[in-house]
Specification:
The chain is of the alpha+beta class and 285 residues long. The protein is built from 4 helices and 17 strands.
């Protein structure tokens, strides 16, 4: 996803201004509603999930579904429903829209019909920047980003056709040509070095010498011997990508994702065994 996302610095100290928003817009029925999800610890714990109306800022939508404490004139989220960030412990609230970390604050991000807004309180010391997370799959391929829709190119092994079909069913515009939005299904050898720079690309699941490495938050990075495939998002040049140490492992991961889109809900990246079973979610201890 060539979006040029960067981390929202949402962990600054300041005076709190708590409270829910008032005069909330009516939430539309059906798929036009915005889904607002609030989690902690790289999505390990779902705190709550609500619906909100499009056409308002991400900050206003958050205020209308929870109690929010802010700093810096109300532009940075310090706490949600009483759960505050901890700068001394390098933990804070960060957010994604359709799986992309916006390059603007929540007060300046306008929501569009069908968007997903995800707030996560997490440890950020090692991964200050996580531009892309897979936890809203099949977003951003269905509703795009900031109101802009892009076709998605699905490439790689022949089994990638199952993912292409799944994306079409979800409403994505799949193209056989080039696109800034890409989904790849590859072996580790084919992926090359794209999945090795875990800190540079914000990868909570990555590769090192053919091994699947899982980031454990404060516990650091370690190899998972049960993992033979991974699903991770990154930019540039595009993502998510399914990769496996063999073609069957890569295809098993792609098949599971195509059949069960919620497989990766509220995750940043996942490691899978050779049969497509998730064995670890990156960032979680």
């Amino acid at each position: 996803m060539a979006v040029g996302a960067r981390l929202l610095a949402a962990v600054l100290l300041g005076a709190l201004a708590a409270g829910c928003g008032q005069d909330a817009s009516a939430v539309p029925a059906g798929p036009a509603a915005v889904r607002v999800t609030i989690t902690r610890d790289y999505g390990a714990t779902l705190l709550h999930e609500r619906q909100a109306a499009p056409g308002q800022s991400a900050m206003n939508a958050l205020r209308r579904v929870s109690h929010v404490g802010t700093s810096y004139g109300g532009r940075f989220v310090q706490s949600i429903d009483g759960l505050a960030g901890d700068p001394s412990g390098h933990e804070g609230w960060l957010y994604f829209i359709n799986g992309i970390a916006p390059d603007v604050g929540a007060t300046d991000m306008t929501l569009h019909p069908g968007d997903t807004e995800w707030w996560d309180r997490r440890y950020w010391s090692d991964l200050v920047q996580t531009p892309v997370a897979i936890g809203q799959w099949p977003e951003p391929f269905v509703h795009g980003y900031n109101g802009h829709h892009h076709p998605v190119s699905v490439r790689g092994l022949a089994c990638s056709s199952a993912l292409a079909a799944s994306l079409r069913r979800a409403g994505a515009r799949v193209t056989s040509g080039s696109s800034s939005y890409q989904v790849k299904v590859e072996t580790f050898a084919q992926a090359g070095g794209e999945l090795t720079d875990w800190q540079g690309k914000g990868l909570t699941v990555s590769l090192s010498n053919g091994r699947v490495m899982v980031y454990r938050g404060p516990g650091g990075l370690s190899a998972d011997p049960a993992a033979h495939a991974l699903i991770a998002g990154y930019q540039p040049p595009g993502a998510p990508g399914d990769a496996g140490d063999t073609e069957p492992a890569a295809c098993a991961a792609a098949a599971r994702l195509a059949a069960s889109p919620t497989l990766v809900r509220d995750t940043y990246a996942v490691a899978l065994d050779g049969a497509g079973k998730v064995v670890a979610a990156g960032g979680r201890e």
